[in-house]
């Protein structure tokens, strides 16, 4: 049916054929055919509400089936324990989630990401357990020395404490380990500005606003760096962009 849909010239007919294929394949548990149909729908009809609705339900069903199979075939595996821990975390059962994550480390002390997850959970508690979360992020880096997320969280902890040099070093590593980690560039620029290192702040902030032009914070921070390094025209331009982004931000939130 997918081949027929690809050959048809009628957009409406193609839409209906591929949508029917996706639903039929899912009901028959033909996963590969269902996923192929969904990929075609999302490619040919992006942002279509019904496509997004069906995609959400289909992938949710696939995830449910996979988790049930994991629980049935390997209930005591680290992977099963991690799914349980993540479920507890999503429901705000912080202490129980940590217990489950600890069970994983008992089975596999070198498993990547677990110390990081525990650190995040500790920061989610009220009040946040900053001291122990810091220890967990540091432990994660012992297991996975190139973990950009752990470096970022250590940088954020340092930034909030006003430890600018530590924050700058951590955010720099996060950006180095993951060149696509946009938030690291913003956090690095903010920390450099706070440390009075305005010239150094320009480059990471330029990178951030190019990637995230709709974020007012990036334009504001770059305007600050420009202003403090004598680039008045550039600073004024960034402030204009900051105001435009701020005006559009509520509309984007409303649409989402």
Strand runs, count:
0
CATH class value of the largest domain: Mainly Alpha
- Quaternary organisation: single chain
Which percent range describes the beta-strand content? under 5%
Q: What's the average pLDDT? A: 91
Question: What's the name of the CATH homologous superfamily of the largest domain?
Answer: Tetratricopeptide repeat domain
Can you give the helix content as a percent range?
Answer: over 70%
The radius of gyration over CA amounts to 23 Å
- Head-to-tail CA distance between termini: 33 Å
The H/E string reads HHHHHHHHHHHHHH
Question: What gross morphology would you assign?
Answer: flat
Give an overview in words.
The protein has 256 residues and is mainly α. It folds into three domains: 2-72; 74-145, Tetratricopeptide repeat domain (Serine Threonine Protein Phosphatase 5, Tetratricopeptide repeat); 165-256, Serine Threonine Protein Phosphatase 5, Tetratricopeptide repeat, CATH 1.25.40. 80% of the residues lie in helices and 0% in strands. The chain has 14 helices and no strands. It has helices at 2-7, 11-27, 31-44, 49-73, 78-90, 94-107, 114-124, 130-143, 148-160, 164-177, 182-194, 198-211, 216-228, 232-255. The longest helix is centred in the N-terminal third of the chain and has 25 residues, at 49-73. Residues 2-8 and 252-256 have low confidence and may be disordered.
